[in-house]
């Protein structure tokens, strides 16, 4: 079941970029959740393309249709099938690309893997469009998490070498107010500039997203394999273009001594807390009670109009390719809600496994 | 089954640091593999403590006992239970530590998670000793991979801020010749110095391991969740102290433009190859045929003799702790074979899922 | 993932009796299968209600819509979402039944399990309508099985105490020619009579289906838990009204001596075969090469117009209920293709796990 | 992971009949269970051979060694490895049998499946000895179930055509007092006679076990695949020699009308109960609150000293075989605790999935 993830709250991804639809089946959602459809639509809107100068002009309304598992506004405990229909796809360019695999895209290994039977149009299953289904499932996960006081928020912390300073105050709203989803005004301006420059050079640019989950109780997680880190990482690598992940101080820990790296405990307000959070809220694969902090690196979207070297599979000769069409110059801003969704999915599953959300939410009538 | 990983080649971890044993059950190993016991012992020896000045003096011979699944020297297709008995544990210090959780260790969340019933001695399940079982399973995986021409090697690429240059030539042997497992002589010397300095300051130091898998055919992997990256990351986060992972150019991709990041295709020697490997051998979750390159960051081992702030759980007051005992000043050199093992486990599972290793290796009699 | 089954060829069931649709996601179908849509429609037609006097008059055309995983007529290797829209449901009677659970139906435990949030209309998830999705997946499984020479056929072997003799000759066609799917003319006539009698008495009647799978190679199956018997049984108990299962001589074996029960081996036509098949083609959970024979008992459909004792959940008092509406007087004839589907699903998964069907069927271009 | 079963309470079977040991890994047992070792030993003793004239003379003490997951008498939440060493095996006869597969045994398909690399001695993995591990896990499961008032008991209800009447009163003790585990004195006597007759004719005889689980709350189970029936059936078919299973009235339901088969509801003592239990305590895959009733058919053990037809695999000719050695003339009495164990394992998993047993049982210190 390689298209599924999760033990008790499990998610099965379906659909292709230029097929009929993309969507998701959520199995294991507790019964009795009053679905907040406006919140679901809002999450989809955050991920939706075509909303600013820094995203693709492909225009999908991304309305979500719920086909099962919900009755009279509440989840029933049965599998929830949600999907959005693909409408604005333009497959005309993909036949021409078929024999000259695009560098940096999954075209070539996918073609070999599936004997050429893959639905290659628009990148098929390897397209970022598939993440629309993740966001649907994530929206339900976020509602469940809210019931136990857990919130998951992310922001763009770097684009093309421009790094945002550590945010403070109400950065969540500030991030959403920025078209690059960076809460820092100055960094935001610089990031937009970097993207515009790449765009006008027919190029693309990568970046980073930082995601923070707060409100988790201590001891959520399942050693030794189904750790918070392992499950979050696995989920995040399902997002196209993700190439690196760190928790807490991450790479900087490799340069530290133990005396710097360890997060000391202290009593604060009657609670046992750590005075730093280098561990990113996770020790031994379990939550420490401190915020979970995960940072993710995205490579630049590989569809560039620059001439690139490739090969012609039909003739077996070197070739050149220019990838035109509607592509995001930088996927990072739109990836922010996707990262949140993946983290939310994993935390929901883990919290259900800890028995902290009941399987039936209230009783009807 | 949070202590298991893998779909067709699956591994279940068992044992505690100061319990009777640590080990592993391997389910799904093809029948007919002539087990190379010397190779298994050699892998265990690579991970074994007490072999140099930069590792702990805990001395375990780590002889592996195979209790099932092997008959007349060959695997039978049945579950293989392998374990090594714990002999040299010294649990005397752990009772004193029980109420003052060690910063940076899993003590506190584990205690909360398991209601205080965990076998805390020596770190219990959260101890690095558990990785001995991983190495056993990895040794079998490596033998299977060798049958299809896949090799997995790793080395220490950084310790405490000292970075090794990109290796060249026969770096595998060079790495093994170094007590810190770094193939570069100069860097090796500096790393040893950094470790010795930390050690004499009663401190510990972190570092990085880079692992490279060669010989993979194109198109191994299972989108969208059971990707090579996702599965490798999940497996690696089961290794204590791992806090960050990147594939290929990883974080540097976030700063690149698409025109730099994309790996162009070219015909070389009649084969379709990429002229660079920023993707780390993986696109769309599938192997590209280029070497898989994964880099892992380890935090410093948290057991330091320095006084550290903690809390006394019995009295609910702030406290101070000094963690003495036999601990590695730097775990990175011993982690090298563990990283290889985790990567080998995942690749074996993925290659079996692709049907590239038969389920029966030859026929007997 | 309680709504999913299968390791490599996995099936996730979705939909409710009176919701928008019922369907299935098939994950793990090899790429390159040229889907035989006529065969798919034919399987659906076999299960379809409203086709004879012995089935319900609910009339669904059960046209299957394929929403993903198929491109240019071939499977792509991606998840296949198939569904059929519910059109002819009549939910009017179910509100009245809500507080008086129908004896023999799942109403009461489902209500308790899901806190009353279940979509109870038409029996919801517990309805036989859900098996439409099984048949869709089964149709694909049958196509895959045909590629390796495996065929799965079933027939009605008993209804309401009328037992059919062991079939011979071309019983498959004969079974399909009978509206009760019994290949024996005389038994068929008696079965119809038994059903008609029950129907005119406002009652329902149970029966048995026997399913036979031929063409299996020796040694398919996975001990000790994922046996052929275990997996087939688990799949079959997902079919509403199934209450008993036997393989081969089944219950009669409990009365036999070993000397009768054992199937002797002999050389026949150069092959090693058994001269009897009391084991139903399975020993040690593995196929023996002889046909797999499984018999399944269905209880009578519980919706009867007879007055029945129940309780009024609102008032907490004893009550009486009469269940009217459109229901099959005997579900067994329509269950025949469903039983075949479940057996086909399991065998496909097991054969894929044995590596006997490649993951890519040919190469396109 | 074909040797594992269970989602939250999972069991991995290990060991061979004549290997070093047989055992089990239990993953997911809640922390804090005070293990009742006497109860564990008692369950093992019930299954142990060599205790009466109707069982094999192979004499194993079957002492259980616990190698992980238990600390200071309590489960820790970590995987529990339990095993018993094989001591009294006699492998001398098996080499002679190697080329003449025993009818009714798994010899031939296992040999084909594993290319001849299987540990065939004593039947290897297909031996009933493997069930010793099931009983170990079942003993823990029973302790967990007892905490929520669930009890699982079984008895021999038929042997070689002798059927016991429906038991009444305290049949549990009566069954244990009988060497065939049948609570009815007269039937017990007849069963012993049937076994003795078969034994003196160098033959074996089959039989049936009925298992009853009481105290279950309403609504335990997971539709549509992880039903109580599906999971119990799958687990039971892992027990060698099981060939048929029914729940409640089972096969008799196939002959009934709905008006007979349906279990009417009534108010009794303020509770909603059914006045009959034809459904065997399960509707829609969920518990109804009535006792779960499952009946299992065992074929005769196939090792008979009678001459039987087989083939010589070396020469490819017909051959004759006589299977001597120490074998149970009837496995049914010893299978009683094994059936209980399998039912207990499944119910424990299902009850954990319903959140009815906490994951930490109390708090230490």
Describe this structure in words.
The structure is a homotetramer of 365-residue chains. In chain A, 68% of the residues are buried. Chain A contains nine helices and 18 strands. In chain A, helix 1 packs across helix 4 (131-147) and helix 4 crosses helix 9 (332-353). Chain A has helices at 37-47, 94-97, 107-113, 131-147, 171-177, 185-200, 228-236, 258-261, 332-353; strands at residues 4-5, 10-15, 21-27, 65-66, 70-71, 74-75, 80-85, 151-159, 162-163, 207-214, 242-247, 265-268, 271-274, 282-283, 286-287, 292-298, 308-312, 317-321. Chain A has 365 residues and is an alpha+beta fold. In chain A, strands 1-2-3-7-4 form a five-stranded antiparallel β-sheet, covered by helices on one side. A five-stranded antiparallel β-sheet of chain A has the order 9-8-10-16-11. The mean pLDDT of chain A is 94. Chain A has a single domain (4-353), classed as Chorismate synthase AroC (Chorismate synthase, AroC fold, 4-Layer Sandwich). In chain A, a hairpin with a 5-residue loop joins strand 2 (10-15) and strand 3 (21-27). Chains in contact: A-B, A-C, A-D, B-C, B-D, C-D. The interface between A and B is large, with 105 and 105 residues.
Q: What's the structural blueprint in terms of helices and strands?
A:
4 copies of one chain form a homotetramer.
Chain A: E1 4-5, E2 10-15, E3 21-27, H1 37-47, E4 65-66, E5 70-71, E6 74-75, E7 80-85, H2 94-97, H3 107-113, H4 131-147, E8 151-159, E9 162-163, H5 171-177, H6 185-200, E10 207-214, H7 228-236, E11 242-247, H8 258-261, E12 265-268, E13 271-274, E14 282-283, E15 286-287, E16 292-298, E17 308-312, E18 317-321, H9 332-353
Antiparallel strand pairs in A: 1-2, 2-3, 3-7, 4-7, 5-6, 8-9, 8-10, 10-16, 11-16, 12-13, 14-15, 17-18
Helix pairs in contact in A: 1-4, 1-9, 4-9, 7-9
């Amino acid at each position: 079941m390689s298209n599924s993830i999760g033990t008790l709250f499990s998610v099965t991804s379906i659909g292709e970029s230029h097929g009929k639809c993309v969507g998701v089946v959520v199995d294991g959602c507790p019964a009795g959740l009053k679905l907040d459809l406006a919140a679901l639509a809002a999450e989809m809107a955050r991920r939706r393309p075509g909303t600013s100068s820094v995203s693709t002009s492909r225009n999908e309304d991304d309305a979500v249709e719920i086909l099962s598992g919900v009755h009279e506004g509440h989840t029933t405990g049965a599998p929830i099938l949600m999907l959005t229909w693909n409408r604005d796809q333009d497959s005309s360019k993909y036949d021409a690309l078929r024999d000259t695999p695009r560098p940096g895209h999954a075209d070539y290994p996918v073609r070999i893997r599936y004997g050429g039977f893959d639905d290659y149009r628009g990148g098929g299953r390897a397209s970022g469009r598939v993440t629309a289904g993740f966001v649907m499932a994530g929206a339900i996960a976020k509602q469940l998490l809210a019931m136990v006081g857990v919130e998951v928020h992310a922001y763009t912390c770097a684009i093309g070498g421009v790094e945002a300073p550590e945010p403070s105050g109400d950065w969540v709203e500030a991030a959403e107010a920025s078209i690059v989803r960076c809460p820092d005004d100055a960094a935001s301006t610089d990031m937009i500039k970097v993207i515009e420059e790449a765009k006008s050079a027919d190029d693309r640019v990568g970046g980073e997203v930082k995601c923070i989950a707060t409100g988790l109780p201590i001891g959520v997680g399942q050693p030794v394999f189904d750790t918070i880190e392992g499950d979050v990482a696995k989920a995040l690598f399902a997002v196209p273009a993700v190439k690196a992940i760190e928790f807490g101080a991450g790479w900087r820990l490799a340069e530290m001594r133990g005396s710097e790296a360890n997060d000391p405990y202290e009593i604060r307000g009657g609670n046992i807390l750590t005075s730093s959070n280098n561990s990113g809220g996770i020790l031994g694969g379990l939550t420490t009670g401190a915020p979970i902090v995960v940072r993710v690196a995205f490579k630049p979207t590989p569809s560039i109009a620059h001439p690139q070297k490739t090969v012609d599979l039909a003739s077996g000769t070197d070739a050149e390719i220019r990838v035109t069409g509607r592509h995001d110059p930088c996927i990072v801003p739109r990836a922010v809600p996707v990262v949140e969704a993946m983290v939310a999915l994993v935390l929901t599953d883990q919290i259900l496994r800890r028995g902290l959300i009941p399987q039936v939410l209230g009783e009807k009538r």
